[in-house]
């Protein structure tokens, strides 16, 4: 099983490549949707890492995948600017998925 990174910047991709994670740098909403669709068809992709910037472009699509598909696991990672919203998105996902609000 493999991990794959969807990033909006080269720095994050380079760091992940050093740890053996493949990925791609993309910027447009349609590119993100196309790549997600492609990755969903690959049985060996277990985890998709996405920078916060890209996840924000397709948030509803990602939540739909998380709630309705057993794999891959999609994980939001902070972008290089460290916007600090990752905790909030995890809390929203838990609330949407099981109805429990995290503080």
UniProtKB/TrEMBL annotation:
InterPro entries: ATPase_V1-cplx_f_g_su (IPR008218), ATPase_V1_fsu_sf (IPR036906). One of its GO terms (molecular function) is proton-transporting ATPase activity, rotational mechanism. Coiled coil: none annotated. Keywords: Ion transport, Transport. It comes from the Bacteria. The keyword Ubl conjugation does not apply. Belongs to the V-ATPase F subunit family. This is V-type ATP synthase subunit F.
